[in-house]
Amino acid sequence: MDALPGFRSGAEGPDESNNIKVSIELKEGNEWRFEVPFKLTMILKVTQGIGEIFGTELPTNSELELSGVKYSVYAPLPEGCTLEYYLKLSKENSNTSNEGSEISEYISEDNCMAQYMNLHFALESKRQEISDFNYLNPNETKTGPKILIIGGKYSGKTTLSKILSSYAFKMDRQPMLVNLNPRDGVFSIPGSLTSTPISDNFDLESIGGYGGTVTSGTTYHNPKQPIVKNYGFEDFNTNMDLYKHQIESLGAVTIERLKKDITIKNSGCIIDTPPLTMKNYDIIETIISEFQVDYIVVLGNEKLLADLKRKLNHKIVSQQLLIIKVPKSEGVVELEDTYIRKCQEESIKEYFNGNFRNPLSPFKTEITLDDFTIFKVIETSEFNSSLMFAPAGDSFEPDATDENDEKKKEEEYDKYFKKIEDFSTNNLENLIIAITHTPLSNKSLKDILNSDVQGYIHVSKFEESKNKLKVLLPVPGAFPKCNLISTNIGYTE
Amino acid sequence: MEAVEQFKKTLSQLTFNSRPIIDALTAAAGSNVEVADQILDAITARIYQVKPIEKLFTLYLLDSICKTVNNPYNILIGDEVFKLFSHVYLLSDESVRGKLSNLFITWKQTKTRDKLPLFPVNQLEKIQQFLDKARNNENERLVRIIDELVPTFESKLNNQYSDKLREKLEALKQLRNILKTSTLKKNELQSIESQLSTIKQQELGSPLPPNVSIKSPTKLPSSLPMAPSSLPSAPSSLPSAPSSLPSAPSLPNNPKLPVVPSLPSMPASLPSMPSSLPSIPHQSPVQESMEIDNYEPDFQNGNNYNGNNSNNGSSFDAPSFPTKANEIFDSLINVGIITFEQDFKGPRTFDINYPKVINRSTGLMETIKNSQVPRNDYEKLKFNELSKFKIDNFQGFINNSKLSIQCKKLLYDSKNLKCSNCGKRFNNNELDKKKLHLDWHFRINKKFKNGSVQSRNWYLDEDEWVKFKDENLLEFQISENPIVSQPIVEEEVPYVVIPSTETNMNNKCLICREIVKGTFNDDLGEWCWVNCIVPPGETSPRIVHANCYNETKKRHGDDLNGIVKREKLT
Ligand SMILES: [Zn+2]
Ligand SMILES: [Zn+2]
After folding, report:
1. A223 CA distance to ligand 1 centroid (A)?
2. ipTM
3. Residues A64, A148: one domain?
4. Of the candidates B379, B398, B550, which has its C-beta nearest A326's C-beta?
5. What is the CATH number of the domain that holds A309?
6. CATH code of the domain containing A444
7. Could you say which ligand is closest to the alpha carbon of residue B567?
8. pLDDT tens-digit map of A356-378
9. What CA–CA distance (Å, rounded) separates A253 from B435?
């Protein structure tokens, strides 16, 4: 391999001649599961037959570079699939500690891919019916299946949503992939909730296996165009009110897009979620109503399935909703926290610096705090404790003045986020800040909170004496004069 | 001269379909062949001048003369038949058009006594093409009938909701879609038309304008002429427009209008009967006695004085269709053209069925299944495979279904053009698309090789995103039209112009010490070191890669001078 652009300096490449090529043969229906630590890069290619990773078909005799992944290659057809790989040290990640330095891999003959494919074809059948109907009834169009994927931790929800999206794309659909798990950045960074039409293959080499967006400059694969809502925490439990609010806000804009775009409308939505349980039933209910969900796919959890069927019986009986179960794949590995953390870091790094295929150059700049309004998402626990200290007199006899009404309105938003008044006590260093699309002149808390994200900046330093923030800006040119919301997502360069 | 004058005089009486007059004139033409040109002039002049229905009778005369006398009439008029025929056709209503079509069929089949075609073949072909085109417009015409019916249904529904009515309305809309998207055979169109006229009568009571209905609500609709074919422009002296459909009663705007009770078993109005022109009120005393003795063009050569009333091939089959509106829908449902959508609650809607159901199909369904939705080859394949599924039980299908290999292949080999770079698949007939795709890979790779420095762009805002179309992102667009709605902001590729004093085109990056070769830039007309910059504090020809500079700067902050200096020392 030639040195890749942007990475030629420094790191001494491993001696390629020492790399042993390993060949893997898969029979029809077999799945080869493997994990590559960040330290290593696996150079993988299909030499014969057809193989796919989570529904994305691999090119034949063309190398993929995979690092820090837990993937599996599936051989869907009778001709099977022959793979070949070798390993080398990753150039940038050699210093990562407490991570295994070997890959793990095995072939599984027992997997759920057949059921997942059946699920796809059943859904595609529905899509066909709906798109034919829509063609014949252009004035009263229906929407393709809106599928909510629910399951416990490590049940393979993300894998299934990738498979369903990829297959749909391969059959000339353009499904809307909705990510409601703020832990993963899907076409964005962690802490965000996104909706993205899948109009091309995923990019398996990128962090998370999704790929670039229009905002990534020229990309190796066709980019995608997401809409990004800011939640600001990686755990959906941290502020459920805010989480729910942003689901509603993402749902509204997503449904709008479906109305305008018949290709997507025919294809429907695929909604990936964090591990929701019956304790989060109100969240599930919110998703169902905001995204007009008509299919729930429960991954290998009989209890959850039964509970949901009971709770949602009225919708099932009235045939507005179908609840289906599919087995959870045995191949889904439990992700260690360190691995998740590393993926999050890599995803943020990719946002600012690009990846080995297309490096990006962010810009360092300074912003004067007096020129900006910065909000900060708030943890529910923090909000609750602040309530305890509220002056007692506040709650009774509110004057019916306009001013008070205004204040009350503003207070509604206290549970979501607050304006930062004192920067010395609100340390923003090493945090990611979302730039909203609301101009600074717009002071409406509602607009600011509901605004989708224009981009993210990273705070490298707070200079108290100058009242300035040193930030990393991903886009060249002037700093947008828009309201900012600090997330709780940390990152050190 | 006298013969011609006499001919013209009799000709002027041809204001109705009178076999005796046509026979007399044919005989006169036969015995006056020396003035054939003048006789033909008189006939063509009349065709162009009289009102539409009389044009037909005059054309019948021409038909009779040509078939009976042959030479010289058929030869002299030969090159004009298309013009005459299309003229009459365009100005006629539907019933007349049907007759014209039948007339034309006899022209195609009639041979002269010399076993030659009656009219020149090129003229006949022109007429054929003309008719083919005109028939496509038949669909449009029927769509218009439906469009006239729909608002009436809707207003009825508003006044008095009934599921049955609702279903009928939906079926009408489906029928409209079939018409919009399919090419139907003539007899199918005619069946639909006759059904529509039945619907119209039964659901709306009367095709008469509302004021008439209001004045005499008890008047039996059955006594009224039926729409649409049985309404030739009749006594009207106005030249009728191509379609002389009665305008739909404008009931919807008048909720107080009494609803005329529908007549369940009214015999279908038979727009069919090709030979029975509704009797046209006519003042001529001759008319009554002649009423049934109409001219009927036939296939025979020579003598056609003997009446021949048998229908020819393309006549209607209306009586075989149900006569009640409900039954029409039921029959559509029974034969599988239309099914209920039963998945969800709410108003029932109808779907048009897929080929699988239409095995015992008639020609109508045959046509529908092929043409209701346009599909490319891949989509047809997919449609066929998916149509084989029976997904009554979604969960059962997921658990137990064994997909056929053909079905699985829809995800793979059915699109057998696979990109060797990225694995993306293209339909077998999308060679051009694949080529664009490969060009795009080439461009992208070249760009990355050049190592141009890129930066991110902002995400779209809500309004832009809602309107965004992903087609603009794909490689097929980019080639001509680099993402209009969201231009990628890119740094210009940096370069250092090689000083004219410099004799060595090869230079070295001060940071990575890689050789940088000079390349000629067409736009600038200069030799350049591409992707390089002169770092701060240095002068050309001392250069660094822009990438190296940025990388180093990122790692060491602004303290770059030290790095470069140190590099210089080594
Ligand atoms: Zn490709
Ligand atoms: Zn260099």
Report:
1. 13
2. 0.90
3. no
4. B398
5. 3.40.50.300
6. 2.40.30.330
7. 2
8. 877 888 888 899 999 999 999 99
9. 36
